[in-house]
Amino acid sequence: MAKRKSEELSELKIPAHVAIIMDGNGRWAKKRLLPRSAGHSAGSRTVEQICDDAWSLGIKYLTVYAFSTENWKRSESEVATLMDLLRKYMKNCLERSRKNNMRVRVIGDITRLDDDLRESIVTLTRESASNTGLCFTVALNYGGRDEIVRAFRKMLADYDSGRFVADDITEEMLSEYLDTYDMPDPDLVIRTSGEIRLSNFLPWQSAYSELYFTDVLWPDFDKKELIKAIEYYSGRDRRFGSETSKN
Ligand code: IPE
Ligand code: IPE
Ligand code: MG
């Protein structure tokens, strides 16, 4: 039986880069008559498990949406809860990256975060930089439009200092100014909790990603659900604009 399972898995086409919009923590808590903070805590445990599951399935890059540029609109107490959780999460993540060899990065505008959180992100990024396991990216105070605006600011500064002329601008060049400059585009974007939208997550990078939506709430998302998403991905015919399959 175990053998059959591994044979079945070996037939799957494993995406190199999976990006996840982790949604539904609040509804998960509400269903259990718990405070929203309990949903966020449960959600952060799910992230830890999914990192290990993703790597064991052969996924090389995992990117998760943890806090959007729009999430500041939530109540002061919810934002404070999320920031506290992220603080704890970053500390644990340093320990875990030492054990499981994961390389951790953060995308988004971290200048708006408190000093201590920003410092722990810098430490985590630096200390895990040469790890060779899963490349795990946390999108934190991330918004795709904000990322493009920040990219334009950096680009314009280089333009002003004469590093390039307008005709030099290409898609590849713009990509290099984005926070994701050193990672491949996501092959598969997953969103949990039944919402069918991208909510400003990787709009440039997901132009040709396969999209998978599930009703499962984020704290309930597990390896079985990840395999379902990969099964869906395996059945897709990625054409990238051509008339025939590239698979
Ligand atoms: C996702 O869960 C976590 C964050 C956006 C930080 P939500 O908090 O959005 O949960 P729902 O959508 O209210 O259920
Ligand atoms: C998207 O979830 C952001 C994260 C998962 C961090 P939201 O719950 O904030 O998105 P909307 O408001 O439903 O679009
Ligand atoms: Mg939500």
Give the bound compounds. Answer: 3-methylbut-3-enyl trihydrogen diphosphate, magnesium ion
Instruction: State the CATH superfamily name.
Output: Decaprenyl diphosphate synthase-like
Please report the total strand number as a whole number. Answer: 6
* Overall SS class: alpha/beta
The string of secondary-structure elements, in order, is: HEHHEHEHEHHEEH
Report the average pLDDT across residues.
95
The profile of the biggest β sheet is: 6 strands, parallel
| CATH uppermost class | Alpha Beta
Which fold name is given in CATH as the topology? Undecaprenyl pyrophosphate synthetase
Spatial order of strands in the largest sheet: 3-4-2-1-5-6
Counting copies of identical and different chains, the oligomeric state is: single chain
Total number of helices: 8
Radius of gyration: 19 Å
- Poorly predicted spans: none
Residues in helix, %: 40-55%
Query: What is the end-to-end distance?
Result: 29 Å
Shape: globular
- Architecture (CATH level 2) name: 3-Layer(aba) Sandwich
Summed up, the domain count is 1
- The proportion of residues in beta strands is 5-15%
